[in-house]
Amino acid sequence: MPLPGVRELAAAIVAARLRGSIALTGHTLMRVILIGALVGGPLAIVLGVVLVVHTKQEQMKTLAQGVIESAAARDSEITAAFSALDRLNNPPCQDADLRDLRSLMIGSTIIQDIARWDHGVPMCSAVYGTHVGAIPALAEPGYVLSREQTVWRNVTLPEVPGHKFLLVRHRSFILVVRPGASTPYFGDQYLSISRFFVNHETGQVSWFMGSPIDIPAGHLHSGAAFWERGRYVTLACVGDHEICLALSTYWADILRGNAMPFVMFALAGGLIGSAASVMTMVWRHQRRSLYRRLQQAMLRGDLVMVYQPIVAAGSRAVIGAEALMRWTERSGVEISPDVFIPVAEEGGLIGDLTCFAIRSVSRELGDLLRGNPDFRVSINIVADDLEDPRFHDALSVHIDGAGIPPGQIALELTERRAAQVEAADVVINTLRGRGFRIYIDDFGTGYSSLTYLSDLSVDAIKLDKSFTKTVDTSAARSRLVPPIMDMAREIGVPVIVEGVETEFQAAYFARCGASLMQGWLFGRPVGAGELVLAAGVRAKRVAVSGVV
Predict the structure, then answer these.
(1) Residue 108 and residue 114: Cα distance in Å, rounded?
(2) Most CB contacts within 10 A, which of 242, 272, 315, 431?
(3) Among 42-46, 371-375, 513-517, which stretch is predicted with the lowest mean pLDDT?
(4) All residues at 6 or more sequence positions from 183 whose CB lies less than 8 Å from its CB, including other chains
(5) How far apart are CA 493 and CA 509, in angstroms?
């Protein structure tokens, strides 16, 4: 049964993303929703368990710290009582002495009785006076703090049946302490608390409240939390770790106490998983649809080439252009190259696009190139083209065969693919041997370095426009521009600056020694006819002024 609201959400996503271009059957949609719910639900539950357990751990740490602070105050009260008992100077078990004992007991919040003893036998107490029959003769102590202090735990007094007491001896005095007097209420039925003494000299551990827990030695000294037999245990100790407590809860109790959050996590995960599945399906359909539309566009001739002028940095004469591919569907919708080029690479159409670009440049700009030996056109290629026989055939047929000097054609490799180019060094050198120029495009956005470019013997690098935009700002990337320009000059690699849009940027890179520039400041991408006209007009104007 589908989760509430998922079908409506999926339908909205489909309607918004596809705009009616993808037809999905109800069966397919529900199957995708179900798969998303089956994946998202369990993942969300796992995430919920992690969050709940982490929250419970932090809660237990906070509670343990609060309890141990209370225990520290309790320990301080017992220590203060010992100091007061050491100052008593009345004859033992006389009226004045008993009054002092009662006064100390009444002033305490945790001491149930104070007794004097002699050689293991109680003599008198604040509650029972000299009738000390209510305090039994004590056996071997459960824990020895020092030569003058020992502890007995879980002692039952005849006059108070059903209750366990903690007895602490200090020299000739015994304090009767009720352990439960300082046990807090957590408001959580699944948490339990245990207390114990630790003698670091002997390694003895003595439990005086709660169930004993098997504590690893390393955790005992570090006070770290740990898992033990299906339960989570948090340790905390007072002062020098002599008095410690363990707060614990079982794994199953953590889950049982948080059933509702897990249900909510599962529902939310199912919804998110279903939505993500539908969106992924839509995206995949869009990619497949775009691939088919690109194939049709190639067959119908909907792809065209435009050319953005490249100018000399000093004279600003148009000395070349970059060939750029554009796709406008017959409905008038323009598809960005950033969208359809990756689709072409994934679908194996990129070689066809490269060959189309070479044919178009030859057909549209052949006369311009043959009549102007100094004019150059750059064509974008990818690393896969270097191994594609069709690419080399296209250069031979449409460049060499058309009488266009190879030196007027620059092949631009994107730096993102430079790692693949390294393996094709022989092919690059072969192309350069034929006269073609090799540029590295979008320099600074990928993995190459200037030393690497020197090894490849490329003819120029095109500095990515993301650097150009920063030169008149305080962005950190702007500080990288001068070192790049200096190092390129040192290894003899010319720099073509892309994305120049302002006079400030143009002047800046001219001072830095850039060879060529390209950007909207000098001209937007135009058709072949406009480029021929712009190049001719600029050349004539420069020739008259004596610059060329």
Answers:
(1) 11
(2) 431
(3) 42-46
(4) 193, 209
(5) 15
DSSP code, position 463? E
The residue extents of the domains of the chain are: 89-254, 302-545
Is the Cβ–Cβ distance between 49 and 255 less than 8 Å? yes
- As a whole number of angstroms, the distance between CA 462 and CA 439 comes to 7
Paired with 84 in beta bridges are none
What's the pLDDT tens digit per position in 162-180? 777 878 888 889 888 876 5
In this structure, what is the dihedral angle of CA atoms 220, 221, 222, 228, given to the nearest 10 degrees? -10
Helix/strand/coil percent split, the chain, to 5: 50, 25, 25
Q: What architecture is domain 302-545?
A: Alpha-Beta Barrel (3.20)
Q: Are 464 and 519 in contact (CB under 8 A)?
A: no
Per-residue model confidence (pLDDT) at position 14:
39
Angle at 380 between CA 378 and CA 386, to 5 degrees: 110
Residue with tokens 């770290």: 224
**Amino acid at site 148:** E
Residue with tokens 């993303």: 17
DSSP SS3 for 142 = coil
How confident is the prediction for the chain on average, in pLDDT?
Answer: 75
Tokens found for residue 238: 């007072």
Orientation of helix 26-86 relative to helix 95-106, angle to 10°: 160
Q: Which of 542, 538, 462, 470 is nearest to 508 (CA)?
A: 470
* Separation CA 167–CA 208 (nearest Å): 10
Give the Cα separation of 65 and 68 in Å (integer). 5
What's the one-letter identity of residue 332? Answer: G
> Token pair of 231, please?
């339960």
424, 383 contact by CB (below 8 A)? yes
Distances (CA, A) of 409 to 207, 234, 401, 430, 514: 87, 73, 14, 14, 20
Name the amino acid, one letter, at 64.
A
